[in-house]
Amino acid sequence: MRIAVDAMGGDHAPQAIVEGVMLAKKDFPMIEFQLYGKESEIRKYVTDETNVKIIHTDEKIYSEDEPVKAIRKKKQASMVLAAQAVKEGRADAIFSAGNTGALLAAGLFIIGRIKGVDRPGLMSTLPVMTSDAGFDMLDLGANAENKPEHLVQYAILGSFYASHVRGIKNPRIGLLNNGTEETKGSELTKKTYELLKAESDLNFIGNVEARELLNGVADVVVTDGFTGNAVLKTIEGTALNLMAVLKDSILDAGLKGKLGALLLKDSLRGLKGKMDYAKYGGAVLFGLKAPVIKTHGATGPEAVAQTIRQIYTMLDSHMVEELVAQFEEKKKQEGAFSINEKLQKKVDK
Amino acid sequence: MRIAVDAMGGDHAPQAIVEGVMLAKKDFPMIEFQLYGKESEIRKYVTDETNVKIIHTDEKIYSEDEPVKAIRKKKQASMVLAAQAVKEGRADAIFSAGNTGALLAAGLFIIGRIKGVDRPGLMSTLPVMTSDAGFDMLDLGANAENKPEHLVQYAILGSFYASHVRGIKNPRIGLLNNGTEETKGSELTKKTYELLKAESDLNFIGNVEARELLNGVADVVVTDGFTGNAVLKTIEGTALNLMAVLKDSILDAGLKGKLGALLLKDSLRGLKGKMDYAKYGGAVLFGLKAPVIKTHGATGPEAVAQTIRQIYTMLDSHMVEELVAQFEEKKKQEGAFSINEKLQKKVDK
């Protein structure tokens, strides 16, 4: 098992990235880590060289670079070289905390889509307040627009992830909608509902509303990239703002506030922990020929190690290979079905 | 000034509604309140009869009724009679805490749209964490789908509301999008961006992201009804879930938790108060020939009184009349423009 690591991506790169890899190495001595980036910088943080390869390059992609242009022009950037390694079979997965758009572009244009997945989506496991389970949601914004067929593909992808990586049997798939009734929604959600209902392999539980997401109403929630992006950012913004208001009002309460906060330290920390979804690993650009994983730019070593664990599980469960087979089978069935339809039409005449 | 009140709408009707009206009467003795509903029930809570008319009816619309059907079939329902009064000029505005869909239908089919507003939208003033100002957002779900022209109409409506009712000079209009750059977004948001930029009367500040909404990034935020509905429900769901987790973990902390919570009582109450947007009044179904206002089914007397204050300000500022004039002017200009365009085309030939 070989993971290509963009050691130069993220706000605290390469230190946080390499330190995270060193942490992960303790649990996963069998993984080969390929660290792409400035060798002299990387080497400072390598405490154990076994199974570690450093591939030196001076070039890197910055967070402010225009994604597609960066991927096309900066052929020697650490992220591009790491993606090339996956493409050419020298690595099995890629991890980066760098420019999200550039990683999406690298995934699409260098590594490539699974046949049958039209528009790979961005997926994260988000926190459920009532349990430790979490739920997977996609697309969180890889696309600004989606068709019903894409959402069905997301349901298949999400279902595989929930079962293979999170160990959930027969994951419950929900469609994000503006009401729970079957007749509710936009043209997109109404058509998607019909298609999902017809997918006998999926445990489709119907429409779910945004108010119920953090209650664990479904194990996998599918939506278009525009809505998913808005919902994810709303969760983050609401949580951050509430925590900030609480903190301010505790500080304003003076000594009483300090004492109260001290007594509630564990409770307040627990609240923060509940919302922190880095514990589930990074975001997956899902539907590509290999795992492509992105973490926040501010990611620290622990979150990097957690993400390596996630990638290990994805590779170890052979999820991508199974997905390739599944989508090929689906394609065949649809092909057979459309041949049958054509025959039927001839008969009808 | 005459307000038609659906006294039978809401979980605690007619008690909470009539008590709220009685509260509001103290500040607004000049308003005539028309209370539609079961007279014997309503009369129990009327403590001051001056300027109060009770219009008796036995019929009412339930929260589980199918909206359009209910409006068409239940001709004598309290909500329908109240809407009829507005249509026929016997009242100036309508207020209900009942079935939202039915009120939308009553507004559209009985009271009718302002000429030039294609798809009235649902608008609420939502809380800003860093100040007491709040921001107006629409459409929150009156429509499942919107065109760019609708969003421009929402910007005009929202701007009028922010200036006339909330007293904000030159309100900042933001377009909800999945990134702040002009080139970001779906076909809908890209086209809307262009149109909003061309509206010289609006203070359009560009795209805003969902993460920044509660920071007060704009005074008015426009979006399509599907996204708006998802964002509103996500804010509510996230806030409710966080408060519940905090409460549970305080209870789990035993005596220490109880003591800490006691010390932080004001801070925790302040947090709840920050999120409670009933203080800004009810949701406006906006773009109709008269104010149509909806509050939560669980609304209590104080929130009803607050909503009466909001309706008073809407009526007192003659906002709807000005909007009618504004949209007529807009229509004329576009008409003149299209005549010019036609002439130009003739010249070109």
Automatic annotation (TrEMBL), chains A, B:
InterPro entries, sorted: FA_synthesis, Phospholipid_synth_PlsX-like
KW ATP-binding (keyword) present: no
Subcellular location: Cytoplasm
Main location as per UniProt: cytoplasm
Keyword annotations: Acyltransferase, Cytoplasm, Lipid biosynthesis, Lipid metabolism, Phospholipid biosynthesis, Phospholipid metabolism, Transferase
Gene Ontology terms: biological process: fatty acid biosynthetic process; phospholipid biosynthetic process
UniProt KW Ion transport keyword: no
GO cellular component: cytoplasm
Record field: catalytic activity: a fatty acyl-[ACP] + phosphate = an acyl phosphate + holo-[ACP]
GO molecular function annotation: phosphate:acyl-[acyl carrier protein] acyltransferase activity
PANTHER family in the record: FATTY ACID/PHOSPHOLIPID SYNTHESIS PROTEIN PLSX (PTHR30100), PHOSPHATE ACYLTRANSFERASE (PTHR30100:SF1)
Sequence similarity: Belongs to the PlsX family.
Protein name: Phosphate acyltransferase
Gene that specifies this protein: plsX
